[in-house]
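TA notes, week 10

Several of you asked for a full example with nothing omitted. So below is the full record: structure tokens for the whole chain, then the designed sequence directly under it. When grading your own attempts, check the secondary structure regions first.
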């Protein structure tokens, strides 16, 4: 997955572009960098609630695909997007209280926590 976490500038993240470096190296992104990437252009409150539910589900499915491809950083970003949408953004949406009943709202929170736990288990067991 190409990532804006690793821009062309040589800031120590991603492959080294230094001519003095004998070996190319790759510094994994920090959690803060991955979290920042997950927040980029994430929320537009003018879009409908169903759009954001579909967006969160797509991010979750993409994360699962990325785990299978061993792209754990990309998977983290996608899971973080889904979790942020469901846990932080959707409750502030103007349609949240009217389109979802109390059980649906509760289930959204449980599902996000469940998938985040699965991600942590998958990463831990694959190393």
């Amino acid at each position: 997955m190409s990532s804006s976490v690793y821009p062309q500038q040589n800031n120590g993240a991603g492959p080294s572009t230094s001519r003095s470096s004998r070996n190319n190296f790759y510094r994994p992104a920090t959690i803060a960098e991955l979290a920042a990437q997950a927040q980029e252009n994430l929320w537009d409150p003018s879009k409908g609630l169903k759009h954001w539910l579909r967006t969160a589900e797509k991010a979750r499915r993409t994360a699962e695909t990325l785990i299978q491809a061993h792209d754990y950083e990309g998977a983290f970003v996608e899971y973080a997007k889904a979790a942020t949408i469901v846990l932080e953004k959707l409750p502030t949406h103007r349609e949240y209280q009217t389109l979802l009943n109390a059980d649906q709202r509760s289930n959204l929170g449980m599902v996000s926590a469940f998938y985040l736990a699965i991600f942590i288990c998958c990463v831990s067991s694959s190393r």
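The helical segments are 31-39, 49-68, 72-89, 96-99, 102-126. Use that as a sanity check on your answer.
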